[in-house]
């Protein structure tokens, strides 16, 4: 079964790359989630003219502070299909909070680059991305949260070292569960 296969994927490859499982492809107007059976379900449709700017997914075998797998925004030049497993490297983090049952809670997004990317092959940290990159993504999240009428707040940005520390903490939480 598909869900069993996902659970058996480690957080990193043998050569140290981070495994990223894609739920929502770049350019999609639909947010996908994996349900308890391991199937993709449409969780949300974005308004006309709004699409996901990059692919979104998670790192298997991790447990973030919010109780889910560690969220990843995967930078690639083109789209990838939902269900793809991609080798990536972490370059930074966008720090955010949103409402979870009446309380503002951290819901950070780790930013990663697909190792196969030719366009972004020399980028190792978020500060090396084009001017305005992080602002553009923050604006997407602001729009997205306003659209679903969920309180949202930007907290800050972090570089590769913070993203790696978050990954290591999420791997440790997963092992300790």
TrEMBL record:
User: Mind listing the GO biological process terms from this record?
Assistant: phosphate-containing compound metabolic process
Q: What species does this protein belong to? A: Roseivivax sediminis
Write down the Pfam families for this protein, in alphabetical order.
Pyrophosphatase
Entries under PANTHER family matching the protein: INORGANIC PYROPHOSPHATASE
In terms of InterPro entries, this protein maps to: Pyrophosphatase (IPR008162), Pyrophosphatase_sf (IPR036649)
- What name goes with this protein? inorganic diphosphatase
Task: List the cofactors.
Answer: Mg(2+)
Q: What is its EC number?
A: 3.6.1.1
């Amino acid at each position: 079964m598909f869900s069993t296969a996902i659970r058996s994927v480690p957080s990193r490859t043998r050569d140290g790359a981070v495994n990223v499982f894609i739920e929502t492809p770049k350019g999609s107007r639909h947010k996908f989630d994996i349900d308890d059976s391991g199937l993709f379900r449409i969780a949300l449709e974005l308004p006309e003219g709004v699409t996901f700017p990059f692919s979104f997914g998670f790192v298997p075998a991790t447990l973030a502070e919010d109780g889910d797998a560690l969220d990843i925004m995967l930078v690639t030049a083109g789209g990838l299909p939902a269900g793809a497993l991609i080798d990536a490297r972490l370059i930074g983090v966008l720090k955010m909070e949103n409402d979870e049952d009446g309380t503002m809670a951290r819901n950070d997004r780790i930013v990663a680059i697909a190792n196969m990317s030719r366009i972004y092959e020399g980028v190792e940290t978020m500060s090396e991305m084009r001017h305005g990159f992080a602002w553009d993504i923050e604006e997407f999240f602001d729009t997205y949260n306003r659209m679903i009428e969920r309180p949202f707040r930007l907290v800050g940005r972090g570089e590769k070292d913070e993203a790696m520390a978050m990954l290591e903490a999420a791997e440790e939480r997963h092992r300790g569960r």
